[in-house]
From TrEMBL:
Annotated keywords: Membrane, Signal-anchor, Transmembrane, Transmembrane helix
A GO term from the CC aspect: membrane
Protein family (similarity comment): Belongs to the X(+)/potassium ATPases subunit beta family.
Gene3D superfamilies in the record: Na, k-atpase alpha subunit
Membrane topology value: Single-pass type II membrane protein
Protein name from the UniProt record: Sodium/potassium-transporting ATPase subunit beta
UniProt subcellular location: Membrane
InterPro entries: Na/K_ATPase_sub_beta, Na/K_ATPase_sub_beta_sf
Any one Pfam family match given in the protein's UniProt record, by short name: Na_K-ATPase
Amino acid sequence: MIELILCLQVVLLTLLGALASILLLLCIALYHVLLKTGHLKREIPEGLSIYPNLEMSNLFLSEDEINAGRLVRYVEEIDNFLNEYKREQALMAKYISNCTVDSKPFDNKWCWFNVDKELGKECVSNDSYGYTEGSGCILFAFNDRFSQYTENMDRQRLPYIPFRCESINHKKEDIRFSYFPSIPHNPKYGAFKLNLLPNRNIRDDRGNFMVDNEGNIIFSPPPLVMVKLTVQAGVRDIAIRCSITALRIDGKLLHNMESFSGRQKVMIRLKS
């Protein structure tokens, strides 16, 4: 009887080992299939992202705080993001198309976003993005990699996603927001260009999805909006909400956020 039990244990362990090996092989195969087909995606948040990252810290604009070393971090974070953005643009330069603002990317082409032109002359690295002048610029990106929000939007009527920042504890006169790019004829709104959305992975000449050095699928870079903050002297502790917003065009409200699960707003605490 003991011999039978030992024999069954050996058989069971052998079967479990074989099953584990099969599962491991299946996982490896699935990984390569996902990588090849473009379904393996980097952990990049859907919706709004902010640079510098102010998720867990306040934004400081006072001269003392800037001199304390925050200036370096603010500038480095924006520079690092934009340098990587341009690097990926250069990597996919062969697949650039100069789209019109109301067009949609077509097969194996993505629309060009001119970083140096679109983000304005008031928010540049050479001037430390305005932080040495008592103001400051914040960079926002909008990712829609799963076509949750932008695929079915009416690009002819509004070729932009409206974006706006506002103070929720101070008067409008206390802080001014300037957007680069902004919606034409309506500069009170920032403009995420729809011809850059949804983000798309690009195939090379052999039909394979392009990947970076770590094997991650490369997506077309997202649309960007730079926001310059100008604060009145003496104003302190400002709570700011920046969000995708509804906008009336021809008397109709354009808003389509119910189906989008990505980040739609960012809260910032400014200490000036």
